[in-house]
Inverse folding.
């Protein structure tokens, strides 16, 4: 039996998307965002939702560029700090000791230490009141060797990328394998 | 040292969003979608990306309504089946034995057996070529008792909701706790 609850507009799991931008003075800044997802496969596009009050919002509108940096579990504290402090007041790279690198394809910095980085160009900006939804087309992807298998294919299965529970407000590791996609459901076909 | 790879526009983790709609004959249908996320907090809004070729695409345009049903790990096979078969040819509820229930707030069915259900009304439709991004405002949320703690608050921490790795193409369980959000990052403040 289901119970009606308040308007809890949440999804589990949330990704942990660390968004890199340049501020108006060219200072690299990062913001952690849990509201976002893949928006299209072709052109490969990522959506991120950012409150207008956030310092990165101005940068996104002005540069029309951002990076998406996926962290591993050992960076949980840095990632959390990126979300609770404003780049107006803090130099988040200096404080954490992480390294900004100028993007190759877009006017935004990425984090050298994070293993998976997408460079995105803003193609759509949608005002959704509390948040603005920015859709960015992926212009380039860089990964660390640790994510490449011996054939050069990306594999993040063993990389322990960080995940987020927005309801419990905690970070989690990837969990154990449950089933192979595009396979386990075949048992229902031709029933 | 980072290596450039192809345009791999993916995020880890992906959610497993089972989307309920009514087809033109009023038949309840479900589609599993991994491209999506929270789009705004107020009004609470969810984005889902659906290929124009999918049967649900027509229903989303016509009814401007959908449900988002979050599965637990024991429904991995059903969820997978919902993604690999078209509702044009199959009655996915009948095949799997799951129970469609008419939504209370929108013109879309939800899955009785799934513990967390959001009813959404489409507010924005954005053509992104390979996928259409539908943004739905959350009009009501229903949860099973199993997600309610003794104070009536929602908690899905122990519910083993299903997660997805779009690169490895497998389903995973939630992983172990790493850190408390809005807390662990405070160690960098006033450094």
């Amino acid at each position: 039996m289901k119970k009606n609850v308040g308007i809890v507009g949440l999804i589990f799991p949330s990704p942990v998307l660390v968004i890199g931008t340049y501020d108006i003075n060219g200072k690299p800044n990062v913001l952690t965002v849990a509201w976002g997802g893949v928006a299209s496969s072709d052109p490969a596009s990522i959506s991120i939702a950012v409150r207008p009050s956030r310092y990165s919002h101005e940068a996104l509108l002005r540069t029309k560029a951002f990076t998406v940096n996926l962290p591993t579990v050992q960076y949980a504290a840095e990632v959390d700090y990126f979300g609770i402090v404003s780049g107006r007041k803090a130099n988040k790279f200096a404080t954490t000791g992480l390294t900004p690198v100028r993007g190759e394809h877009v006017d935004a910095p990425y984090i050298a230490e994070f293993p998976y980085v997408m460079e995105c160009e803003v193609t759509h900006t949608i005002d959704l009141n509390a948040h603005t939804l920015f859709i960015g087309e992926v212009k380039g992807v860089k990964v660390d060797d640790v994510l490449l298998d011996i054939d050069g294919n990306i594999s993040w299965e063993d990389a322990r990328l960080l995940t987020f529970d927005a309801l419990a407000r905690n970070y989690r590791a990837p969990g154990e394998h449950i089933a192979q996609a595009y396979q386990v459901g075949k048992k229902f076909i031709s029933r």
